[in-house]
Design goal:
Helices cover about 25% and strands about 35% of the residues. By secondary structure, the chain is of the alpha+beta class. The chain has a single domain, classed as Anthranilate synthase. It has a 17-stranded antiparallel β-sheet that branches. The protein has a two-stranded antiparallel ribbon with strand order 6-15. The chain is globular and about 55 Å long. The structure holds the ligand C=C(O[C@H]1C=CC=C(C(=O)O)[C@@H]1O)C(=O)O. The site of ligand ISC has 16 residues, from strand 11 and strand 19. This is Chorismate-utilising enzyme C-terminal domain-containing protein.
Length: about 350
């Protein structure tokens, strides 16, 4: 099967890119190009231009991708062990209580085995994911990742950058208590403050009041932010300025803490795509660049599948509560993908 990239906007417009892909350090003119990287931004040529790009809808997906008789996958998940995550949780919390660290987002990964079927069929699910999410996929031979993320890293259009803080989580039924939950509000406002500071270097920042975002089985705090650029900015420079936000990284966003986070991620077997920027520049002369945070998805290599979820640890975090939140986030992905 050819290599495939997919990007679907909240409104439903979507593009499929088919390989081979040509890689670039800077986004080539004319758009129609995907941004694919890992959490550490280790690919120096993250802009991927497909040999063939087509705008698709849910009905035209199959004829553009061609399933070749492939069936949706069955995945047998193994229950995740608590030990390593518990250790990371305790160490992070200790640093937070000592006021050396404000927040860090460790990630737990559930491992699975694809017993039959082909993950390519999950593209249909990504296309029909909730309307307030961005669908993404990157399929390379027998490996890849895909999902539907509720989190925008930024949208760059003309001289305006829009972004959002998305952090703080509850079950939809717990809304009344969530709205006044001091720990969840703190977790969220840390991300707002970080984004306001980073964007403040580019122009005057406008922030909308804190609101709610509901996706498959989950409720989050969400705040929209916008800045009119004083000088033109490249998408790649914005990625470097904003990623990783404390919704998936840490604060302070300094190398020693990022190193610590990388250490936890590697101990906990986290796939590189998780929390990384994933983007698409629409084709055209004055194109819009959409850059999202790749969460709420899974990855696979051969028959091995990985399902990661992360949770922000602040001073008020309790292990059992966070462990439940991690499970709810993974269940949300499993439900969304119909697995
Ligand atoms: C890291 C994840 O979610 C982020 C987005 C929304 C809420 C989050 C939270 O409450 O911790 C996370 O920052 C994930 O889904 O694995």
């Amino acid at each position: 099967m050819t290599d495939i990239a997919l990007f679907r906007l909240p409104g439903g417009r979507a593009w499929i890119g088919q390989g081979p892909f040509e890689s670039f350090t800077e986004a080539p003119a004319g758009g129609g190009v995907f941004y694919v990287n890992d959490f550490d931004l280790s690919d120096p040529k993250p802009w991927k231009k497909p040999a063939h790009l087509v705008e698709v809808g849910p009905e035209s997906l199959a004829q553009n991708v061609g399933w070749n008789g492939a069936q949706p996958p069955h995945i047998q998940w193994a229950k995740p062990a608590t030990e390593w995550f518990k250790m990371a949780f305790r160490r992070i919390r200790r640093e937070v209580l000592a006021r050396r660290l404000e927040k860090m987002v460790p990630v737990l990964t559930e491992q699975g085995t694809i017993t039959e079927g082909d993950p390519v069929r999950l593209l249909e699910r990504v296309m029909s994911a909730p309307a307030n999410t961005w669908g993404y996929a990157w399929l390379q031979g027998s490996q890849g990742f895909l999902g539907a993320s509720p989190e925008l890293l930024f949208r760059l259009q003309g001289g305006t950058v829009e972004t959002m803080a998305l952090a703080g989580t509850a079950k939809p039924g717990d809304q009344a208590a969530f709205l006044t939950d001091v720990k969840e509000i703190e977790e969220h406002e840390i991300v707002v403050r970080y984004l306001s500071e980073q964007l403040g270097h580019l122009g005057t920042v406008e922030r909308e009041p804190r609101g709610l975002c509901q996706t498959t089985g989950l409720l989050h705090f969400q705040s929209h932010l916008r800045v009119k650029l004083e000088q033109p900015a490249e998408a790649a420079a914005l990625v470097k300025a904003l990623h990783p936000t404390p919704a998936v990284g840490c604060l302070p966003r300094e190398e020693p803490w990022l190193d610590r986070l990388r250490e936890y991620r590697s101990q906990l077997n986290v796939p590189g795509f998780f929390g990384a920027p994933f983007g698409f520049i629409e084709p055209g002369d004055a194109p819009t660049c959409h850059m999202i945070v790749a969460i709420r998805g899974l990855s696979w290599a051969g028959s091995e599948a990985k399902l990661p979820s992360g949770c922000g640890i602040v001073g008020g975090s309790a292990f059992d509560h966070e462990w439940r939140e991690l499970r709810l986030k993974r269940e949300s992905v499993v439900t969304m993908l119909g697995l």
